[in-house]
Predict the 3D structure of the following.
Amino acid sequence: MTTRVAIVGGTGKLGGVIREVVEAEEGYEVSAVLTSRSEMSELDGADLVIDASTPAVSIDIVRAAIERGINVLVGTSGWSNERIALVRPLVDASGTGVVFIPNFSLGSVIGSALAAAAAPFFPSIEIIEAHRETKVDSPSGTAVRTAELIAAARAEVGPVESPHVDQRARGQRVASVPIHSLRRPGVVARQETVLSGPGESLTIVHDTVDPATAYAPGIRIALAAAREATGVMIGLDSFIDIGVRTRPAAPEAPVADDDVSGQVAGATSA
């Protein structure tokens, strides 16, 4: 049986990579490609919706798919635990499945898992992430996910030490972890997690050099998982055993979200 896939943001950078993988994968076909001029009604008839749009409209796309009883694979950045909590009740009530993937790169997922595994042993942890200048959101979804995993892994020892965070130059705190975002030409995606303790430090670095080849294996894993998913699932680490023990970040209570409307637009990467 062929799975019909509607890709939102399928003409953008990430969406284009996803589209190539779907078109090459046996048992799937691209039934619709939505752009900023598309209506949500174009989702009708799809068996799976892939959201590779922008943070401003992603929540509307997820809601529209859930209302139609269609499972969703979300590759759009900007989905923190708090934002996911806004749609979790809708997912549970509908019996659908929504899979959130902050980063399709297997190396990135492993890097975040290693950072979480090391987190309880270092009092100071900060994240520096860099993406091309066209990435519209910051911090990146990968950095947010890493910070949430770090906070969950440190549940018994408490939040990280982050002095002087009242100063804007100290970055944005997510789950107590300062995140510093760079947007510049000449880079695709890079994340450094710097863990420091008395007399030593540990730096975990991941670089994405070629998104098409880096993301393809993870997209295939997520594609198969999203087709059968029920409920909310977060991260490729939900579907692969990377041999690193981490505590998953628990969902938090919903908070106000002021970024919930707009038109469908081109893709952003995690």
Summary: Residues 248-269 have pLDDT under 50 and may be disordered. The first strand starts at residue 3 and ends at 8. The chain has two domains: 3-103+211-238, 106-208. The two ends are 31 Å apart (CA to CA).
